[in-house]
Structures are given as C-alpha cells and as structure tokens.
Amino acid sequence: MATQSVLAFVGPSVNWWALLPQMILLGAALLIMLVSALAPKQTSTPFVTVTTMCAAITSYIVATGLWNDVQRDGPSSSIASAFGIDGFSIFFTMLILVALAATALLSHGYLDKEGIDAPEFHALLLCSAAGAIVMASANDLVVMFIGLEALSIGLYVMIAMHDRRQEARESAIKYFVLGAFSSAFLLYGIALTYGATGSTNLIHIRDYLGAVVFRDQHLLMAAMALLLVGLSFKVAAAPFHFWAPDVYQGAPSPVTGWMASVAKAAGFAALLRIFFAAFASHRIDWTPIVSVLAAVTLVVGAVMAILQNDVKRMLAFSSVSHAGYVLIAVQAATDQGTAAALFYLFTYTFMVLGTFAVVGAMGRDDDHPLANYAGLGRSRPVLAIGFTILLLAQAGIPTTSGFVAKFQVIAAAVNNKNYVLAGLAMITAVVGAFMYLRIVMAMYVDNEEQKSSVPSWHWSTKVVVIAMVGFTLLAGLVPQFLIEFAEDAVPILIRG
Amino acid sequence: MDVTTGWYLVLGALLFVIGGTGLLIRRNPLVMLMCVELMLNGVNLSLVAFAQRLDDIGGQTVVFFVLVVAAAEVVVGLGLVVAILRRRPGTTADDLSTLRG
C-alpha cells in the first residue's frame, strides 16, 4: 500500500480560469467542425462567422477579467510554472482576439466573394489564434514551440485553402518549407538551451543564468543564436525575410493580414519572453546581435519596398521594416523599450489589418499593380480616405498611432544611448514614407478608365476598415491609455 | 574508446546540418520534407544526449512532443505537396516561381 501511494501520479495544479480564453477558442473550433459536418451546407458560412465572433468576444471579456485579476493580485503562473499569467500574456491575448475578430469578418467576405464553402477555414483560424495565445503566454520553451506550431500549421492550410488557385498553393508550400526550416532552428536552440541550463523552463533558465558564471559560454551563445534565427524567420526580420514578399502576395488577403499581425506579434512575444525576460542577465551578449539585425531589417525593408510595383509586395517589405522598428525596442532591453515594442505591435496590428482589408477588396489575391488603385479617391472617397490614414499611420505621420509608436521606439533607443540606431530609424522612416505616399498619390491621380473596374465592397470590409481607422486615430490623438496599458504589460517571470 | 554523450551531440549536429543543407539544395518537394525530418531528428538526438548527460528526463519528454509536432507538420506538408503535384506532375521547387522571388 505504501509503495502505491508513492507511485501515485499527482498532476500539477491547473488554473483553469486563466486558460479559459484559448479553451473558448478551441471549443468554438470543435463546435464549428461538428455542426458543419451535420448541418446542410448552404447555411454554414454565416453560422461559422457568428460562432467565431462570439468566441472572440467572450474570450475578450474573460481576458479583461484576467487583466483586472493580474493588476489586483499580481502575476502568477500555472501548470508547473509552464504557463505565465501576467500582463504580458493578457496583452497579447487581447491583441490576438482583436485580430481574430477582424480576420473572421474579412474571411467571411472573402469566402462569400470567392464562393468557397469552407467552415474549416474559421476552425483553423480559431486553432491558430489559440496557438498564438499559448505562444505568447508560455513560460516554457517547449510549450512555446507547441503554440508556435499550432499557429503555423493552421496558417499553412489557411493559405492553401482556395482550391482553384495555384499561386496560393505555391505560397503555402514556400511558407511551409521555410516555416519548418525555422522551427527546426528554434528547436535546436531549445535543445542547446536545455543542454546549457538544464531546463526548458524560462523561470529556471533565468534563475540559473543569474546565479551561475559560465567557464565556457559557447553552448549558450549557440543556443541564443539559433533561437534568434528561428524567431527572426517568424517575424520576417532581414536577412531572414526572403519568404515574406512571395507568401504575402500569394496568400488570400485576410490570411496575409493575419500573418502580418498575429504571426509577427506572437513571434515578438516569444522573442521578448525569451531574451528580455529569461536571458536578462546575458543582455550584453545578445543586444549587439539584435541591434545589427534591427539595422539590417530597417534598411532592407525601406529600400526594397520602394523597388516594388505590386502593392501587396510593397506592404510585405513594409511589414519587414516594421519588424525592424520593433527590434530596435527589443534591443534596448529595458522596461521602456519593451513597453514601446508592445505599443508598436498593438497599433501595428490595427493598421495592418485595416490595410489588408482594403487590399483584399481591391481585386484578386496575387495581382495588385499600383495602377489598380488609380482613381480610388474619386470612386470610393470614404474608403480612400480610410486607406490613406492607415498608410500614413504606417509611415508614422503625427496624429496617427504610428507616429506615437515610432516616437516611443526611437525614444527607447536614445535613452539606451544607441544614437546610431535611432538616427537610422528616423532616416528609414523618411525613406519608407515615400513608398506609402506613392500608393496615396496613385489613389488621388485621376484616371477615368480605371473607375469601372473598382469592385464592390463587402460590408465586412467596411466595418473592419472603419474600426481600424477609428482606433488608429484614437491611439494617435489620445495615446495615453494605450501607453499605460503597454507599460503594465511588461513580461514578468514568476513561479506559480 | 568510450562513447560519451558528446559523440551523440556531434552526430545530432551533423544530422541537423545535413538536413539543413539538403533542404537548401534539393529541388524535389518530397525530399525537402524528408530533410526537415532529418533536422528535427538531429535535434531529438541532441535532446536525448543532453538528458542523459544532465540525468534529467525533461529532455526525453520533449522528444515526444517534437515527434507529435513533426507528424502533424508532415501531414500538412504532404497534403500541400500532393495538391501541387496532382496539378503539375514532376514539379520541382524551381517550378514554383509564379510569384517572383
């Protein structure tokens, strides 16, 4: 009897309340699959969108409750310290849920327009969102890896969902091969971190690195390099960005928006949690590498964007340059820098989702010459103004959230005495602005014969664009609430 | 000669490098998938070797997670490869250039 009680398995305690946001999403995904298997086909698309929206909203309400709990009782962690419940994880949960709601609406419009009856699209979107939340909340490298894979595998299928378009499949296989390649790098980095520190748990890693002086740092340095390469692929930082233009161009526009907002945000969440929080004691080793990465990314993103003639490829390189700005904030390795990165990612999510909503409504997925946008200012004045605001926000024009975001990032670099990088950020912002202004100019250049070819807008596009423009202006004019939100969301590793 | 865990780490690194190189130079999508598997198995071997060296089962547990994830990834990857090959038999990675890049 005594041996039995010794052998009895005692699982770690689980804080189910904190896991509720992603459990709601997974539950909705299962419900969608179940109902779509049983129900008649014609009724599925509105039901699926409504279910996804309900799940996103319920989940957001729960996340708000969790945020208040964390502000009152302080951060904690659950499941043997593998899952963090801090402001950081809830911040990203909220970001991902906003993006989920917007993407669900846009996908509804897309599936309607293309005549695809695919309830599994939204189910995959929900699973992908749950994976992203797990990735941003993970306090353990293995849990983070599983979240990343749940996010990515859903994305691969969503990109290839259109059964008649060869470009989408090509885009999917390119993203798949490079995604798997980068996952392998990340995983090797995890293995070497485990070898160097004896655990995959970030809290253990931080404590171990803070307490032990290494005689031989090679293993740890290799681990950091591999983790950085793996995550740089995910966030599309140069020189690991070469998949981005092709994949962004070939993917359905709502999926491109999802990729540009959530995949990037989750990648940066992992980057911040690993490097800023867990490798804090070794910041001297990793900040110079991240600085170089940031500088290269800024230059490549800004210069290559100018050379493109396809709007979707332009926006892909603009997404690369945005990764560069966030990396500037990451390399500061201060609370101020991390808050700036969080602010940037949150505002960027709104800008990029709105932008790709417009792009998605402008025509086919893979062919977006700049000429298509000519005359948009006359034929669709309200949406052209919305698109203009979103593009100017990405360029960082004052009164939009993009300006506040860029300002904070540069302020973090200056406070860190990294004047070179701050100067480079300002120069590339000017160079990058040229590309956005080129699109804006094209919209307001009168071109009579283009008018008739402007397609009709699905109501979902209008809703999303108006919401995103509204938030972009709100966060640009009164940014204080979001700045405080980001400051409260700096990651904290704490044993649960 | 003693075979220490260091040998297994070197073997794991070699497998990873062979897989990575193969992924970059081979043009057949199926072989590229196999190369990804080779990379992941190089990682798995390193994890087991580290677990042995540290006398900790954590690393061996991770291998199970990696195996499951790799299986899920291959399901999707094979689906994509089949979808492309069915349309255009004999496709290599070089043919996937409808999108410039």
List keywords for this structure.
heterodimer; A: 496 residues; mainly alpha; two-stranded antiparallel sheet; 20 helices; globular; B: 101 residues; Helix Hairpins; elongated
Model description:
The complex is a heterodimer of chains A (496) and B (101). Chain A is mainly α and 496 residues long. Chain A has one domain. Chain A is built from 20 helices and two strands. Chain A has helices at residues 2-7, 16-38, 44-73, 87-114, 119-137, 141-159, 166-197, 202-211, 218-235, 244-250, 253-278, 283-307, 311-332, 335-361, 376-379, 381-395, 401-415, 419-444, 459-477, 480-487; strands at 76-78, 83-85. Chain A has a two-stranded antiparallel ribbon with strand order 1-2. In chain A, a hairpin with a 4-residue loop joins strand 1 and strand 2 (83-85). The model of chain A has no long low-confidence stretch (mean pLDDT 88). Chain B has one domain: Helix Hairpins (Orthogonal Bundle). In chain B, 76% of the residues lie in helices and 0% in strands. Chain B has three helices and no strands. In chain B, helix 1 runs antiparallel to helix 2 (29-54) and helix 2 (29-54) packs antiparallel against helix 3. Chain B is elongated. Chain B starts with a helix and ends in a 14-residue tail after the last helix. In chain B, 35% of the residues are buried. The mean pLDDT of chain B is 87. Classes of the chains: A mainly alpha (496), B mainly alpha (101). The A-B interface holds A 142, 145-146, 149, 153, 156-157, 160, 166-167, 169-174, 176-177, 180-181, 183-184, 187-188, 190-192, 194-195, 198-200, 242, 245-246, 249-250, 366 and B 9, 12, 16, 19-20, 23, 29, 32, 36, 39-40, 42-43, 46-47, 50, 53-54, 56, 58-59, 62, 65-66, 69, 72-73, 76-77, 79-81, 83-84, 87-88, 93, 96, 98-101.
Label the structural class of chain A.
Answer: mainly alpha
Chain pair with largest interface:
A-B, 38 and 42 residues
Net shape of chain A = globular
Number of alpha- plus pi-helical segments of chain A: 20
